[in-house]
Write the structure tokens for this entry.
Amino acid sequence: MNRRNFIQLLGCGCLSMSLHSCSSAPITERKQLKLLPESKLNAQAAEIYEKVKEKEKMSKDIETLNLIKKIGSRMENSISEYFYKENLNDPTLNFQWEYILIENKKMKNAWCMPGGKIAVYTGILDITKNKNGLAAVMGHEIAHAVAKHSVERASRSVLLKTGTSLINIATGGKLSEINRATGMDTVGMLSSIGIMNPFNRKQETEADYLGMIFASLSSYDIRETVKVWERMKESNKGKEPPEFMSTHPSSSNRISNISEWTNEIIIKYPPIV
């Protein structure tokens, strides 16, 4: 197969999958590729969430759990109200919101699955410190779900696998031979560093921005956001990989972006609830 035929094959294969599957992220209007139905990922996420609740130890800190639910409820309402007032489709319309607090002091983390299934680990409470800090973290995680990043990532993975298969065909199986000889997924590794990681960092930066908007709309003080990431940076001191090897922006870049956005967001997205 010559180079021209290979390019045509790759182009046709990818184009056929991507036709009518492009959309835009809310507010930022970044172009997105979505090949998979959101409803399928939401259903899978709901099943996994139930398993997490069975497996993990739930915290008995009812006061903090109630605060998490209060912050979440305000964000639910403010997000829906914002899109209603802007005459835009509400990306959370089919969400079934749910919140849990997992007892794990070593885990400084929180996440939001597709469909609004949220978990906060007790380990991150030393980083958030207060309601505004907690709102900063929750806003970021909720932003991933609102912007459909999981659908986008899954779609990207499908497209990459298709491209890898076509490359293997075009090289007469040479790629498979290299992988067998080295015991490594060569294209997978290169894709992770050269394609998937920058793509994921773009999502993380978008979630930082949208999360601040959602917190501001919900009447939380987003000036606390930069302090949260400063504390996170201090907590992770010496543990961060080089940015090109990471799926997240470096703490320094993240703090710089957040500092730059803060006043603009406060003015442009005042409390709505």
